[in-house]
Amino acid sequence: MSRTLKKIDMKKGMIKVSVLYPEGVGKTFDMDYYCDKHLPMVSGLLGDAVKGSSVEKGLAGGAPNSPATYLCMSNMYFDSIESFQNAFGPNTKQIMTDVPNYTNAEPVIQISEVVI
Amino acid sequence: MSRTLKKIDMKKGMIKVSVLYPEGVGKTFDMDYYCDKHLPMVSGLLGDAVKGSSVEKGLAGGAPNSPATYLCMSNMYFDSIESFQNAFGPNTKQIMTDVPNYTNAEPVIQISEVVI
Predict the structure, then answer these.
(1) Which of A5, A88, B23, B116 could pair with A55 as two cysteines, CB 3.0-4.6 Å apart?
(2) Is the pTM of this model over 0.80?
Protein backbone atom coordinates (compact mmCIF):
# COMPACT_ATOMS: atom_id res chain seq x y z
CA MET A 1 0.00 0.00 0.00
CA SER A 2 1.44 3.37 -0.94
CA ARG A 3 2.14 6.07 1.57
CA THR A 4 -0.15 8.61 -0.01
CA LEU A 5 -1.94 10.33 2.81
CA LYS A 6 -3.26 13.80 2.30
CA LYS A 7 -0.52 16.35 2.81
CA ILE A 8 -1.09 19.16 5.21
CA ASP A 9 -3.16 22.10 4.13
CA MET A 10 -2.70 23.84 7.41
CA LYS A 11 -4.45 27.03 8.34
CA LYS A 12 -4.48 29.17 11.44
CA GLY A 13 -7.26 28.00 13.73
CA MET A 14 -7.24 24.38 12.58
CA ILE A 15 -7.06 21.62 15.16
CA LYS A 16 -3.97 19.45 15.24
CA VAL A 17 -4.20 16.10 16.99
CA SER A 18 -0.74 14.77 17.82
CA VAL A 19 -0.07 11.20 18.88
CA LEU A 20 3.38 10.99 20.44
CA TYR A 21 5.01 7.61 21.17
CA PRO A 22 7.57 7.95 23.98
CA GLU A 23 11.01 6.39 23.68
CA GLY A 24 11.98 4.16 26.61
CA VAL A 25 13.76 0.97 27.61
CA GLY A 26 12.40 -1.90 25.54
CA LYS A 27 9.99 0.30 23.61
CA THR A 28 9.53 -0.55 19.96
CA PHE A 29 7.75 1.04 17.03
CA ASP A 30 7.17 -0.62 13.64
CA MET A 31 7.20 2.35 11.27
CA ASP A 32 6.44 0.23 8.22
CA TYR A 33 3.33 -1.26 9.76
CA TYR A 34 2.30 2.15 11.04
CA CYS A 35 2.64 3.90 7.69
CA ASP A 36 1.51 1.07 5.43
CA LYS A 37 -1.32 -0.45 7.47
CA HIS A 38 -2.38 1.55 10.53
CA LEU A 39 -2.49 5.06 9.13
CA PRO A 40 -4.32 4.17 5.90
CA MET A 41 -6.89 2.31 8.01
CA VAL A 42 -7.35 5.31 10.31
CA SER A 43 -7.46 7.64 7.35
CA GLY A 44 -10.17 5.53 5.75
CA LEU A 45 -12.24 5.43 8.92
CA LEU A 46 -12.03 9.17 9.61
CA GLY A 47 -12.62 10.15 5.99
CA ASP A 48 -12.96 13.75 4.90
CA ALA A 49 -12.74 15.05 8.47
CA VAL A 50 -8.96 14.64 8.18
CA LYS A 51 -7.56 17.68 6.39
CA GLY A 52 -3.94 16.55 6.44
CA SER A 53 -1.45 14.23 8.11
CA SER A 54 2.23 14.04 8.90
CA VAL A 55 4.48 11.46 10.48
CA GLU A 56 7.97 11.93 11.88
CA LYS A 57 10.49 9.41 13.18
CA GLY A 58 12.47 10.52 16.25
CA LEU A 59 16.22 10.76 15.68
CA ALA A 60 17.71 12.61 18.67
CA GLY A 61 17.15 15.03 21.49
CA GLY A 62 18.48 18.56 21.73
CA ALA A 63 21.56 17.74 23.83
CA PRO A 64 24.52 16.06 22.13
CA ASN A 65 24.11 12.27 21.90
CA SER A 66 20.76 12.38 23.70
CA PRO A 67 17.96 10.11 22.49
CA ALA A 68 14.72 11.40 21.01
CA THR A 69 11.91 11.85 23.50
CA TYR A 70 9.50 10.27 21.05
CA LEU A 71 10.00 7.28 18.75
CA CYS A 72 7.33 8.68 16.48
CA MET A 73 5.25 11.84 16.27
CA SER A 74 2.09 11.55 14.23
CA ASN A 75 -0.25 14.42 13.46
CA MET A 76 -3.67 14.84 11.92
CA TYR A 77 -5.42 18.10 11.16
CA PHE A 78 -9.13 18.81 11.52
CA ASP A 79 -11.34 21.85 11.01
CA SER A 80 -12.57 21.79 14.62
CA ILE A 81 -12.53 19.78 17.82
CA GLU A 82 -16.11 18.71 17.10
CA SER A 83 -15.10 17.44 13.68
CA PHE A 84 -12.29 15.40 15.26
CA GLN A 85 -14.54 14.02 18.01
CA ASN A 86 -17.35 13.12 15.61
CA ALA A 87 -14.94 11.34 13.28
CA PHE A 88 -12.87 9.59 15.94
CA GLY A 89 -15.57 8.66 18.47
CA PRO A 90 -17.32 5.85 16.60
CA ASN A 91 -13.96 4.40 15.46
CA THR A 92 -12.00 4.61 18.70
CA LYS A 93 -12.22 0.91 19.50
CA GLN A 94 -11.15 -0.29 16.06
CA ILE A 95 -8.24 2.16 15.96
CA MET A 96 -7.00 1.42 19.46
CA THR A 97 -7.24 -2.34 18.96
CA ASP A 98 -4.60 -2.05 16.23
CA VAL A 99 -2.03 -0.17 18.37
CA PRO A 100 -0.33 -3.28 19.85
CA ASN A 101 0.35 -4.43 16.28
CA TYR A 102 3.01 -1.73 15.85
CA THR A 103 4.14 -0.51 19.27
CA ASN A 104 4.36 -1.28 22.97
CA ALA A 105 4.74 2.43 23.80
CA GLU A 106 1.88 4.22 25.51
CA PRO A 107 0.97 7.14 23.26
CA VAL A 108 0.60 10.69 24.53
CA ILE A 109 -2.23 12.52 22.81
CA GLN A 110 -2.26 16.28 22.49
CA ILE A 111 -4.95 18.45 20.93
CA SER A 112 -3.62 21.80 19.74
CA GLU A 113 -4.75 24.83 17.81
CA VAL A 114 -2.65 25.93 14.86
CA VAL A 115 -1.34 29.43 15.58
CA ILE A 116 1.16 29.73 12.73
CA MET B 1 5.24 42.68 13.37
CA SER B 2 3.15 40.35 11.26
CA ARG B 3 3.07 36.61 11.74
CA THR B 4 4.38 35.78 8.32
CA LEU B 5 6.83 32.95 8.77
CA LYS B 6 7.50 30.62 5.89
CA LYS B 7 4.83 27.97 5.72
CA ILE B 8 5.82 24.36 5.64
CA ASP B 9 7.02 22.89 2.40
CA MET B 10 7.56 19.53 3.92
CA LYS B 11 9.14 16.64 2.11
CA LYS B 12 10.01 13.10 3.13
CA GLY B 13 13.54 13.04 4.53
CA MET B 14 13.54 16.62 5.82
CA ILE B 15 14.59 17.26 9.39
CA LYS B 16 11.99 18.61 11.79
CA VAL B 17 13.20 20.27 14.96
CA SER B 18 10.42 20.45 17.54
CA VAL B 19 10.56 22.61 20.64
CA LEU B 20 7.91 21.45 23.10
CA TYR B 21 7.03 23.54 26.16
CA PRO B 22 5.57 21.30 28.90
CA GLU B 23 2.44 22.34 30.78
CA GLY B 24 2.80 22.28 34.57
CA VAL B 25 1.84 24.05 37.78
CA GLY B 26 2.74 27.72 37.49
CA LYS B 27 4.06 27.36 33.96
CA THR B 28 3.33 30.26 31.63
CA PHE B 29 3.81 30.92 27.94
CA ASP B 30 3.38 34.30 26.24
CA MET B 31 2.20 33.31 22.76
CA ASP B 32 2.10 36.90 21.52
CA TYR B 33 5.71 37.54 22.47
CA TYR B 34 6.71 34.19 21.04
CA CYS B 35 5.04 34.71 17.67
CA ASP B 36 5.65 38.44 17.28
CA LYS B 37 9.16 38.78 18.71
CA HIS B 38 10.97 35.51 19.40
CA LEU B 39 10.19 33.54 16.26
CA PRO B 40 10.89 36.34 13.80
CA MET B 41 14.21 36.91 15.57
CA VAL B 42 15.08 33.21 15.33
CA SER B 43 13.90 33.10 11.74
CA GLY B 44 16.11 36.04 10.88
CA LEU B 45 19.15 34.49 12.56
CA LEU B 46 18.75 31.07 10.95
CA GLY B 47 17.95 32.50 7.51
CA ASP B 48 17.46 30.29 4.48
CA ALA B 49 18.35 27.13 6.40
CA VAL B 50 14.77 27.18 7.72
CA LYS B 51 12.50 25.64 5.11
CA GLY B 52 9.28 26.08 7.06
CA SER B 53 7.80 26.67 10.49
CA SER B 54 4.68 25.94 12.44
CA VAL B 55 3.42 26.81 15.90
CA GLU B 56 0.59 25.21 17.84
CA LYS B 57 -1.04 26.15 21.12
CA GLY B 58 -1.96 23.25 23.41
CA LEU B 59 -5.67 22.94 24.14
CA ALA B 60 -6.25 19.55 25.74
CA GLY B 61 -5.04 16.00 26.20
CA GLY B 62 -6.62 12.88 24.77
CA ALA B 63 -8.66 11.95 27.83
CA PRO B 64 -11.83 13.96 28.59
CA ASN B 65 -11.06 17.17 30.52
CA SER B 66 -7.34 16.42 30.62
CA PRO B 67 -4.88 19.26 30.10
CA ALA B 68 -2.52 19.48 27.15
CA THR B 69 0.91 17.96 27.76
CA TYR B 70 2.51 20.96 26.06
CA LEU B 71 1.59 24.65 26.30
CA CYS B 72 3.15 25.18 22.91
CA MET B 73 4.63 23.01 20.18
CA SER B 74 6.92 24.81 17.78
CA ASN B 75 8.49 23.23 14.71
CA MET B 76 11.10 24.22 12.18
CA TYR B 77 12.10 22.26 9.09
CA PHE B 78 15.60 21.90 7.67
CA ASP B 79 17.13 20.03 4.74
CA SER B 80 19.51 18.09 7.00
CA ILE B 81 20.81 17.81 10.56
CA GLU B 82 24.03 19.50 9.44
CA SER B 83 22.06 22.41 8.02
CA PHE B 84 20.23 22.79 11.33
CA GLN B 85 23.41 22.54 13.40
CA ASN B 86 25.30 24.98 11.21
CA ALA B 87 22.49 27.51 11.36
CA PHE B 88 21.67 27.11 15.04
CA GLY B 89 25.15 26.68 16.55
CA PRO B 90 26.48 30.24 16.23
CA ASN B 91 23.12 31.68 17.38
CA THR B 92 22.36 29.39 20.30
CA LYS B 93 23.26 31.91 23.00
CA GLN B 94 21.24 34.76 21.53
CA ILE B 95 18.21 32.52 21.01
CA MET B 96 18.34 30.90 24.46
CA THR B 97 18.81 34.24 26.21
CA ASP B 98 15.39 35.31 24.94
CA VAL B 99 13.51 32.26 26.27
CA PRO B 100 12.79 33.66 29.78
CA ASN B 101 11.06 36.61 28.07
CA TYR B 102 8.13 34.38 27.09
CA THR B 103 8.12 31.26 29.26
CA ASN B 104 9.27 29.67 32.49
CA ALA B 105 8.77 26.18 31.06
CA GLU B 106 11.81 24.06 30.28
CA PRO B 107 11.58 23.17 26.60
CA VAL B 108 11.93 19.62 25.31
CA ILE B 109 13.77 19.48 22.01
CA GLN B 110 13.25 16.67 19.54
CA ILE B 111 14.98 16.17 16.21
CA SER B 112 12.93 14.03 13.82
CA GLU B 113 12.96 12.86 10.25
CA VAL B 114 9.87 13.48 8.17
CA VAL B 115 8.49 10.10 7.08
CA ILE B 116 5.16 11.25 5.66
Answers:
(1) B116
(2) yes
